[in-house]
Amino acid sequence: MTVCSPVAAAPVAAAFPRHPWTLAEVLALYDLPLMDLLWRAQNVHRQHFDANAIQRSTLLSVKTGGCSEDCGYCSQSARHATDLERERLMPLDEVVAAAEAAKAKGASRFCMGAAWKGPKEGDLERVLDMVREVKALGMQTCVTLGMLKDGQAEKLKEAGLDYYNHNLDTDREFYGQVIKSHTHDDRLDTLDQVREAGINVCSGGIVGMGESRKNRAALLVQLANLPQPPESVPINNLVPIPGTPLADAPRLDPFEFVRTIAAARITMPTSWVRLSAGRQEMSDELQALCFLAGANSMFYGEHLLTTGNPEVDRDDALFARLGLKAV
Ligand code: SAM
Ligand code: DTB
Ligand code: SF4
What we know:
The protein is about 40% helix and about 15% strand. The protein is of the alpha/beta class.
């Protein structure tokens, strides 16, 4: 009887060097039979992580809607006719109460999102207080505030920020079809500033926007080949929002989503790959396949920023059924 062992993976592993990745190599990963791709991803995953441990972050929108940017997927752009109600920057005590509740339910990280092109100085000061207070609860902190100006990342670092989320979102070639109000290079510039300040980088993208497989692979190549890959890589499946230009984007084949997770895992072996937006619409079985493909982080709690996420009870039941533990 032939026993499947990691040794059997060696020739394949040799064919796919870890860094730098080429587009052809990542496309070759996508082209593998699904079972081979999953097996490779699971092997890589087990070399670096406990395959049964999932990191859980809870999200809070601390400033909602009215954003000047035109991102074609986003409910919060002032340029799209969505029925979202705008909300001003949330008071500190409400943010701290939400973080306490998230901690009590078992989240290890609290992520605060603001619908800004980037923070104004006065707003940043208020976010710094939020970071300090959430950190004082013993939680990891993350914020996503848009593009940063010189000096802002350093202030966030001083306040105790652990992660800054800023997604490249999609391949450079496709970017201009989705977003025109800023450029892909603007996003890279903010990632540089976050890295320079010594904050962990959280950067990934969205799939299911009508991009090609080549675009998806190119996004992963770009993330994996950053001078240092992001510590955290969220993979979002588009949540179609009525009133946005992408409201009617064709749905992505779920197996293509799984392939994207697996390719992210293989190309960024030591990064936390987060199964992000779109989880509410996924079956438990599809989510299990994403974990098998190497996803080891997720958003936990009934809300993302403006859309829904699975009920905590459903997630707790899923963890129990799959024998997963939260970290
Ligand atoms: N304004 C900041 C920015 O753009 O970085 C922070 C908030 S923004 C909403 C954070 C990320 O959420 C986006 O980069 C995008 O990846 C994701 N996102 C937004 N709307 C989404 C949607 N409808 N479906 C899936 N992901 C979405
Ligand atoms: C990320 O990559 N996904 C999260 C977080 N970073 C900020 C946001 C998902 C937003 C989904 C749509 C919404 O709820 O508005
Ligand atoms: Fe604004 Fe961020 Fe939404 Fe773009 S993704 S419209 S920058 S909140």
